[in-house]
Amino acid sequence: MKLRLLCVLLAAACLMGLAGCADMRDINERAYVLGIGIDRAGNGRYTFSFCCYLPVSAGASVRGSKLAAAVISVEAASMAMAVRELNKSTSHEAVLEQLACIAISGSPDCDELERLLDYPARHPQVRRQCAVVACGCSAYELMSADPGESAAPVEIASLLEQQDNSRRQSSSSALYRLTQILADGSDFMLFRVEPERIASTVSGSDAHDTLSITGADVYSAGMLTGRLDHDETELARLFYDRQTSGIISVARRDGTVIYYEIKRSCCSIRFEPGGGAPRFDIKLRVECMLVDSGGADTHTEDEIRRSLEQRLGALTEKCRSTLGSAPLGAESSARQQHYRWYEDNRADWSRLFSASEISLDIDCMLDQDEALKRNIAAA
Amino acid sequence: MFPAGDAPQGSARLAALGIAALLLLFPLGMLLAARPGGTRGTGSASPAARTGHAVLMLLLCLCFAVRCSYILTLYAGMIELYLLPHTSSLAVIALLLLTAYVIARSENDRLPGVAGIIIMCAALPAAVLFAAGLYRADYGEWLILLQPDERNIAGLAAPCVMCLSGFECAYFFVCDTYVNDRSVNSSRADVGGGKSGVDNARGKTAGWRKAVAAGYAVTCVMAALSYLLCAGILTVPGAGRVSYPLVETARVINIGGVAFTDRFDLLFMVIGIAMLPAHTGIQLHCAGECLRSALGALGAGSGSRLVRTPSLRLALPVGIAAWLGQYAQFNEALRVSAMICCIFTLFAALPVLCAMSRARGNLPEGSDSK
To answer: CB-based contacts of A89: which residues, under 8 Å, 6+ apart?
Structure first.
């Protein structure tokens, strides 16, 4: 009985300690950081633009919410210092639990990226799926964009999450995956997101921004090797297994462009180190559906397949000659299928990939029924 | 029971490999001890065989205690990192130990029941988690596990060893039945249980042993699955790089851009924490049994009677573990060790006081065993 009583008392004491009442901080004293934009400020310093939700004054509300999004800029040498400065300047405690997006302007090299992302990657409260993107405009401008419904970082994150249904490569836009890739020294690519001002009335009084993926920066051997434009980025997604909802365009001979939506794609990459040059056999199966014919007749499956073969062939050639293996996901295939060979040759990976042979085998299926159903529904 | 899915890092890897090396000694020792005239039937065994058995049992006790301590430290660190960043890990460890102790001290009667209930409660969320994880896993990463490279074999093997290290419990309870039965029976006979008391004790112990072995079989299967899941989601090198791969895995599972799994980490953590007291309790009990068997083989006399007190049986191995198990952070280890020793010394003192009180005739016989 005495022992039980002692146990209960000890448990109660422990529970009181666990409650954390000693250092409680009210929600009104916190700044919820949704996004961080990073611009170079010169002399090894950066301008960090924190897009935060701050509590508005009592009784007031912004769009029905008691919180208002604000962008606060802080100049510092590292993100840790910037967060500290933010805490001091706003007298609010910066909470990174809701961090949805980190946008980096310019073209940082891998070492710089690793330095900049080290703090959020180590922070236990930061979401591991926080999106990391590059931007052509200034990161402050991107964080300040007003896409309408919610703050820009949240819109960017959902834009990328909608794109991401693959098992491998596209998740490199997530913080956890990117930091792992940087630690491994593998090839990767970063999506570029930019805002565009749209005014639906002549006066522009209800203007808002739309955010879109305009391309991707491709890194290989620790350096930026080039960029993919919007169409190439969309095409490269076909190399990501299990992709859905990407839009591909196929042009007719008369110049009319017809758009197809990818319902499902399946990609398998077989890697053979071989005696001389390594070899990649890429098998791609695409199920697509007509979304916009522009009034023209649709293609046959064979026509779409040939169009895809031509364009994907050009993309793989571009990757082999300049960009590196990231858009194809070739490096992870080589690592998984021939681990020992890869470990022996990883220092020379870029050269080996450039010298490799790539064969494409594409199978295309056009879902006419689905398109017909949509047309009927639209009518 | 998930804790074994969490991979150790750095110096902890070396320690894990050390534990694995120690574990390899047990089959050899058990084979030697099982020879005719060996430890089975300690009454007719040679002094050398008894000593050998005692050393083996002490070694096993040490392994249980180190592992128990490792799991406690691991989970206290996890709770402090993800859930209660402003709360001292000492409070967390104290609460976990207290719960484990309350479960462990009930021994034969309640431990399998408590473990069973927890496993049943965790089955559904665990199934959901594994289904989501397997859907998103890159199975290509598993190919790497089939291609071990001698240069980084330690990096690949250490998490696997930690996954499989629960097997020592099953081994102990399945293979060393005779010694354990004898030990339990003799202790029951000592307190005047008589023939029927011995039979009941034997039946109870056998049932409990099967339950523990089954529990550990589940543990090992779940741990292996957990590791495969982590490797599939975080990649093989990635799983070895993070401190809490299972929690990190839960945090990155994303299906179709839906935030369905966004906070899965909490579910993982809750399951792990719910399993922890039963897991720790089993480890502590195993350590205690080993210690008792070792002291019995050495013929420690009054010492073995003293060690029969459950609390003290638990206090000794945990005290050792507190010093040995906290290899990762030595300074923290000193503080945590001191606290663990204090708590268990406190629990150990109570039954001794009860025994002294009984000797004066204030308490009925056997009241310290429950």
So the answer is: A72, A74
Closest CA to B70 of B135, B12, B123: B12
| Residue A211 near residue A159, CB atoms below 8 Å | yes
Q: Which of A114, A129, A158, A342 best probes binding to B when mutated, by most B CB atoms within 10 angstroms?
A: A129
Packing angle between helix B111-136 and helix B89-105, nearest 10 degrees? 130
Question: If pLDDT is split at 50, 70 and 90, which confidence band does B329 have?
Answer: very low
Tell me which of A84-88, B113-117, B320-324 is least confident.
B320-324
Burial class from Cβ neighbours inside 10 Å (0-12, 13-18, 19+) for residue A5 reads exposed
Residue of A4, A14, A162 to mutate when probing chain B, most B C-beta within 10 A: A14
Radius of gyration of chain B (CA): 21
pTM across the whole model? 0.71
Complex ipTM tops 0.90: no
Chain B partners within 8 Å of A332 (Cβ): 138, 140
Rounded Cα–Cα distance for residues A55 and A158 (Å) = 24
pLDDT in tens, A183-218: 888 888 888 998 876 666 656 566 667 888 888 999
Nearest to B86 among A2, A3, A20 (CB): A20
- The tokens for A52 are 């935060």
Burial A305-342 (b: 16+ CB within 10 A, else e): bebbeebbeebbeebbeebbbbbbbbbbbbbbbbbebb
CA distances from B119 to B106, B244, B266 (A): 18, 21, 17
Q: How many residues does chain A have?
A: 379
Distance CA B227, CA B7 (A): 8
Whether pLDDT at A38 is above 90:
yes
Measured CA to CA in angstroms, residue B143 lies from A336, B43, B49, B323 at distances of 6, 53, 45, 39
Residues B302 and B307: their CA atoms lie apart, in Å, by 9
For residues B264-285, give the mean pLDDT.
Answer: 68
Apex B144 CA angle, B141 and B147, nearest 5? 165
Task: Please state, for a pLDDT cut of 90, what percent of chain B lies above it.
Answer: 0
Q: For residues B117 and A136, which has the higher predicted lDDT (pLDDT)?
A: A136
